[in-house]
Specification:
Layout lengths: L1 E6 L6 H12 L2 E4 H10 L3 H12 L5 H14 L5 E5 L5 H12 L7 E6 L2 H15 L7 H15 L2 H7 L3 E5 L4 H13 L1
Parallel strand pairs: 1-3, 1-4, 2-3, 4-5
Helix pairs in contact: 1-9, 2-3, 4-5, 6-7
The chain binds adenosine monophosphate (AMP).
Adenosine monophosphate binds next to helix 2 and helix 3.
Length: 189
């Protein structure tokens, strides 16, 4: 199985590159942000709770997203592999993912990190907010919260995957196709 973790701050281009990777490698896309937005749309209890945190730009509790990923792995038993987008975002989530995959006799093959500086990220997110209608993309102080959450809680995952020899950084500034080509050359190595 080809299990990839796509890593990078909000606005780094994870969604765009995921779509291309899924098409090329026929992977199942698991984005915790998308799953949570689906819960909000359906007005589930979980969705209503998560919305308050998401609108403020802070992370939802680990157990919530770990439970969601566990369910999705069960629902997709015949998948050729998964692309994890926006998950894991904390060390506890990364440890839980390793356990969930080990239970299925598989593991994370690599973490692919899209590297983009903070100034460019804020610009991209404000621009996306105009089209996406996402509350958390349209306000600069919420965007800063999300980038801070990333730097404090998510960035340490670089060390987690480096220790396993699985971390690979890619320059996230450039054309979509050039960035995609860099990702593919790492995967196909
Ligand atoms: P995203 O679409 O990945 O940018 O996620 C949007 C928001 O959903 C984040 O700002 C968090 O509030 C929440 N979220 C998504 N994935 C996770 C995760 N793995 N852990 C905690 N919160 C998450």
């Amino acid at each position: 199985m080809l299990n990839l973790v796509l890593f990078g701050p909000p606005g780094a281009g994870k969604g765009t590159q995921s779509e291309k990777l899924i098409a090329k490698y026929q992977l199942v896309h698991l984005s915790t942000g998308d799953i949570l937005r689906g819960e909000i749309k359906n007005q589930t209890t979980l969705g209503l709770e998560a919305k308050k945190l998401m609108d403020a730009g802070v992370l939802v509790p680990d157990e919530v997203v770990i439970g969601m990923i566990g369910n999705k792995l069960e629902e997709n038993k015949s998948a050729k592999g998964f692309i994890f987008d926006g998950f894991p975002r904390t060390t506890a989530q990364a440890e839980a993912l390793d356990k969930l995959l080990a239970g299925k006799n598989t593991s994370v093959k690599m973490m692919l990190a899209l590297e983009v500086d903070n100034e460019e990220l804020t610009k991209r997110l404000l621009l996306r907010g105009k089209d996406s209608g996402r509350a958390d993309d349209s306000n600069e102080s919420i965007i800063r919260n999300r980038i801070n959450e990333y730097n404090n809680k998510t960035a340490p995952l670089k060390d987690y995957y480096t220790a396993q020899g699985k971390f690979h950084g890619v320059n996230g500034i450039g054309s979509i196709d050039d960035i995609f080509a860099s990702l593919c050359s790492l995967i196909d190595k």
